C-alpha cells in the first residue's frame, strides 16, 4: 500500500493537544473487566468514536516515531502498531452484535496501544 499524502510539517499540525484521557475512557468502556455489553446504538457510537480517535492518533504517533533512528526498537514497534491500526480501520464490523462488539474491542486495544506508543516516544502526552 502506497501513501499518497506527504508527512505533515510542523506548521501543518493541529496545535490542539489530543484528549487521550477521553480516548482511553472510550476504550475502557469496552475493555474493562466489569464492562457491560453495549446496546446496538451504543456500540455504533463507541465504534465511530474509536475510529475517530485512531484517525487522530495514527499521524501523531507516526510523526513521533519518525524522529527516532531508523534502527530504533521503539520506532519499529510504533510502526507495527500503526500498520495494525490502519488495517483495523479498513475492516468492517460483523453483521451481528457479538461480532460488532469484538470489532470494537479490537479498535479499543489499538487506541490504547497508540496512546502508549505516543507516551513512550515522547510525543504529545496522552
Task: Write the H/E string, N to C.
Answer: HHHH
Could you name the ranges where pLDDT drops below 50 across 5 or more consecutive residues?
1-7
Whole-Å distance between the termini? 29 Å
Question: In total, how many beta strands?
Answer: 0
* Main beta sheet: none
Work out the helicity level.
55-70%
Shape: elongated
How large is the count of helical segments? 4
Structural class: mainly alpha
Query: What would you report as the Rg, rounded to the nearest angstrom?
Result: 15 Å
The mean pLDDT is 87
How many domains, in number, for the residues? 1
> Strand fraction band?
under 5%
Question: Brief overview, please?
Answer:
The chain has 126 residues and is mainly alpha-helical. It has helices at 20-31, 40-66, 73-89, 97-120.
